[in-house]
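From the pipeline queue, job 12 of 40. The input is one protein chain; the requested action is below.

Action: predict structure.
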Amino acid sequence: MADPDHPTVLTTEEQLRRVTIGEPRRHDAPIALCEYDPTWPELFSREERRIRKTLGDRAVRLEHVGSTSVPGLVAKPIIDILLVVADSADESSYVSALESEGYVLRIREPEWHQHRLFEGPDTNLNLHVFSRGAMEIDRMLTFRDVLRSNPETRKLYATTKRALARRTWKFVQNYADAKSEVVEGILANASSSSPRK
């Protein structure tokens, strides 16, 4: 949701209402971060098995992303999962199947890479759904891989998260928006240091 060209702009309640299915949840508090928990990859693996069993080959790709996928990084205890399908706009091809397993569609963002977001049936998670080829897929995976492989970058991101988490946020999305500047900087550095083909 955050606009990389205007990283300090926070998503408004009106914007959240346009994309949220049901009522947006107000937070009105600081963000609770936890030290890295080695059970997080296990929780991802359990969800991966359930989603693959549910969707079969409609699940083009499943990846553990976000801070819980980076050993040693503080995080909100919410497992972020990237699910790639052929066409995320074609909800009839996957939504009812996921709902039958207890996943709940909460966000529909057709204007942002046709993103869909589900909450989990029994694990605190965000299941992000994108179409095959969406630019955001590579960005999410690059960001995760840089944090996994670069201790200095991981420390910078953790420091930023801790500082921002102490503030009171109307919506959790506003905290995510506030991290955009450091996220974009990390991605820009990754892009400039990657070998040219």
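Job complete. Confidence is low (pLDDT under 50) at residues 1-7.
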